[in-house]
Amino acid sequence: MIYVLAALLPPIGLLFNGQPFSAILNVVVIVLCAIFGWIFPILFLVPSAHALIAVHMKREDRRHREVVDAIREHGPPPNYPR
Question: The whole model's pTM is what?
Answer without folding.
Answer: 0.84
